[in-house]
Amino acid sequence: MRKTLFVLLAVMSVTVGTYAQKKVHYGLKGGLNISNSTALFDYFRTGVYAGAFAEIKLKERWAIQPEVVYYRNSGQGGYHIITDRKEHYLSVPVMIKYYITPKFYLEAGPELNYILSANETVEGLTYNNIDLYNRWGLSGSAGLGYQLPYGFGVNARYSYSVPVKAYFPAVYNNTGKIGMTYTFK
């Protein structure tokens, strides 16, 4: 896992280094994560996300923004037996941003997700079921944001994933994120 994380960070560093002659801004982000999966009887659950990003200006209105983000997906469901599931992810989105105005932008791009842990609680007993999942996943994401004064900003994003469970029928994790950003100037 350490090698994988090192490779991801190295790729992000090379991307930033390649565009070093362009305008680059670094920042932090965090907020509320609302997740749901397509599993039967699953309910929406909330959690938090936090991460870092580098925004690289390409043209007047265009930018690319690689990120490294930690987040938690969770859900509760069942019919006669209630289950509670928690999954912890490390995500590397690469968003293409288009600024409609100097402060308001739209964004879209892929996310590479790595599951760090997965636990399920059934009738009070907790099981580590990480082996039932594909460790790597891919999501497509789209969102919007607005830059506020003093480096702050607000954003919202929706991600739709490809199946994450390896040994069960396809389960899709869908995630909405609402949060704040801070860009170092």
From TrEMBL:
User: Gene3D superfamilies of this UniProt entry?
Assistant: 2.40.160.20
- A Pfam family that the UniProt record links to this protein: OMP_b-brl_2
Return the InterPro entries for the record: Beta-barrel_OMP_2, OMP/PagP_B-barrel
Q: Where is the Outer membrane protein beta-barrel domain?
A: 20-161
Q: According to the lineage, what is the superkingdom?
A: Bacteria
What name has this protein been given in UniProt?
Answer: PorT family protein
State the organism named in the record.
Chitinophaga oryzae
